[in-house]
Amino acid sequence: MRTNSKMTSFLKKYYRLLRGCYIYLRYIIFRRKNTVHQNKLIFFELNHNRFERYFYLLCKFYLLEGYQIGIKVNFNFLGNIERYSKLLLVDENVHFFLVNQKSRQFFCTNPTSKKGIFLSDQYFEKSSEDSYHVPMTLHPLMYQDEFWNEIIESTSSRKKAIFFAGSLEKGHYDRKELELKFGVFNRVFLANSLSTSQHWFKVSNFQEIENGAEKKIYFLDRNKVNVPMPMLRKTLSKFSFFLACPGVSMPFSHNIIEAMSVGCIPIIEENYANLFNPKLIHLENAIIFANDEENLKETIELAFSLDEYQINKMHNTVNEYYSTHLIPKSVLNNLFENQLSTCFLNAEAFSVSYMK
Question: How crowded is residue 135: how many other Cβ atoms within 10 Å of its Cβ?
């Protein structure tokens, strides 16, 4: 068995290296690129891509703010490149080098390196004065397709109702690890618990969202009813509240950031709210419930009992939190203005695996 395991590990490593060589030859050698400006260059020396989509997102944030990306060629990294990071291969402001370059900022995945900022995948480690956790983001395609900053007109006619759209696929969104590691209910449990509420409304077609009543929980199973990405933020903006259901292996999910980007007030479990930096605050920029099924239902009633003044005030504080901490410019301000030794970047299951 041990021999088979070693052989499998060797073959996987060999495959990654071959794939990395192919990507280098196919996408990098003859690719078109813009002139490099060192004062605008952000350089990465990576020996793995455990970060997957979050590496793409970090790079994309720099690109959106007018910077260029430099990546040192490493076949193991290229062999691990996934569909979102692959988008960097066709961006004319992303450059690949065989040697390190002088740059505005330098990141590496070697913890013993004395150069630049250590890019750590231990995302759930506590912060220190010289570290920064890159926050959760919208879905990668929201930035790639430029939906993230599309102007959504604020409306005074938001429905006093709760919205959620996402998958309920079993085997993914019903994992017990979320409660064991983070002390939060998984997505399927939340849906099952609230499905007995008088407020529950399981959406079967998109028209029901437009014409539905207030004081309802509009729950869209995306495997049955989908909101197209170009319409998602506009749809969210029509609701006062968003049920912050967790992701697969960790509480964080892009859906809560999409909701907050249009001022939708998250209804969120306490241990999930505490993972934000800074933490979300009850009745200021979130409505927070405990890891208790009865308290969840009481919190739904609390949300529906709030008056228009309280709700509008919270919409404003959610918008302020989003613009202060979650937009690309705010993230880069933190990365540039602080003297950092470590930058924690999400690696989902890899990050969770470090937790005891």
Answer: 17
